[in-house]
Amino acid sequence: MKIIIVLLLISLSITFSQSVYNIEPGTKGNQIRLTVSNISDLNQAEGVEVKLVKGSSFLSFTNEIEIIELLEPKEETEAIFLFDIKRSAPVNQRDTVEIMISDHAYRQAGVNGMIIMKAFVFNYTGPKEFKLEQNYPNPFNPTTTIQYQIPELGTRRAVSVQLKVYDILGSEIATLINKEQEPGYYEVQFNCGSIASGMYIYRLTSDKYSSIKKMMLMK
Questions:
Q1: Beta partners for residue 153, in sequence order
Q2: CB atoms within 10 A of CB 112
Q3: Concatenated DSSP letters for 137-206?
């Protein structure tokens, strides 16, 4: 989980600023916490709307708008936006979302009102190591999900990856992945088909890495 804290000062002007934040694909419960502060000595800020106006296909926000009914002079409050990041987000690439803060006067007439635009530039960080996750659900029937991650290896952009399923005696049941893949976070579905209930093993191999985990099929 990543918590991003930003202070926004309300004034009667238009501003636009950017910051870059590193976030990890596949994480949940990330937060953007906007502290909205009325810096006026005399004027109230009424009907302040904090709204996500530009999202991303790789970010899932649980809320896209917050309304602050009234901010007294020198008063401040928070607007919190929660979001999850899809595992499919492209690592080492940037993405931008924008949040607009406006008051009632601006939305009604567009003049003599307040608007602030805040851009968040996200950099999707890549994994630092190989990792094979426990499948879920487990036990399963008939389908389960297997997740794994591939780090950067020097100047090599892709490595050969194999993900196979074996029975408890070591006989190969299925090949789920057998190809070159770039650094990133991956997941694959395994459908048990007509195989019998019991304990099975899945193995990820790539470069000098090898990892084995068990899973239980219960029909």
A1: 156
A2: 10
A3: SSSBSSEEEEEEEE--BTTBS-EEEEEEEEETTS-EEEEEEEEEE-SEEEEEEEE-TTPPSEEEEEEEEE
Does the domain at 3-124 match CATH 2.60.40.2310? Answer given as yes
Phi (first) and psi of residue 104, to 5 degrees: -60, -40
The pLDDT value recorded for residue 1 is 67
CATH number (3.40.50.2300, 2.60.40.1930, 3.40.47.10, 2.60.15.10) of 131-217 reads 2.60.40.1930
In the chain, pLDDT over 90 holds for what percent of residues?
Answer: 63
pLDDT of 39 reads 81
Q: Retrieve residue 63's tokens.
A: 């809320």
> In the chain, where are the structural domains located?
3-124, 131-217
Kindly report the backbone phi and psi dihedral angles of residue 183, in degrees, each rounded to the nearest multiple of 5, phi listed first. Answer: -55, 140
Q: pTM for this one?
A: 0.80
Establish whether domains 3-124 and 131-217 are of one fold.
Answer: yes
Task: Give, in order, the Cα–Cα distances in Å from 119 to each of 11, 88, 101.
Answer: 18, 22, 11
pLDDT in tens, 11-51: 433 344 467 899 999 999 999 988 888 888 888 888 889 99
Asked if 115 and 101 touch (Cβ cutoff 8 Å), the reply is: yes
